[in-house]
Amino acid sequence: MKPSETTASALQDTFKDVMACVATPVSIVTGLAHNGAPCGATVSAFSSLSVSPPMILVSLDRRSRTLEVIRESGRFGLNVLGADQDDLAMSFASKGGADKFRGTTWSIEHGLPRISRASAWIASTVADFADGGDHVIVLGRVDAAEAAASRAPLVYHRRSFGTHQPYREPARGVPA
Description:
The protein is α+β, with helices and mostly antiparallel strands. It has a single domain (25-151), classed as Electron Transport, Fmn-binding Protein, Chain A (Pnp Oxidase, Chain A). It has helices at residues 3-19, 65-73, 86-93; strands at 24-25, 27-32, 38-43, 46-51, 54-61, 75-80, 106-109, 112-115, 120-132, 135-147, 154-157, 160-163. The strands form three sheets. The chain has a seven-stranded antiparallel β-sheet. It has a three-stranded antiparallel β-sheet with strand order 1-11-12, with no helix packed on it. The longest helix is centred in the first third of the chain and has 17 residues, at 3-19. The relative contact order is 0.20. Residues 19-163 form the Flavin reductase like domain. Its EC number is 1.-.-.-. Belongs to the non-flavoprotein flavin reductase family.
């Protein structure tokens, strides 16, 4: 192995460790193929991009079947999972087609698969694609959005699932 390969490999491992320190929302990006078959993939690389106009971005593995469907249809759904939906996150992280939806309660909204009980839902039209190394960044214009105020989100941090807990600083002078 060449020294530069060792260095690149070590940097990748260190980068993964650093990124594990960043808490990220866990979402499932969904699409609908022209034959009506649903597809979906778990992502942790999702972010708001713009408020005016409302836009989001998601990052998908360039070999993803879901990415193929999004390229064909020009649309995608984003299901921000609820704190109790880690089983879905794992299921949709695996390779496989419509089988990922087996046993999952979902419906079609705005022409896209929407997973039941997600803490938030966004329907988007593709605005652009950008190269992102081994991933493709999909920019989406938001067509519809809905939040379930009472459902805590699922987050991924230090290679495990959890949820957000608000930080409350104790009042001054009061023992913690």
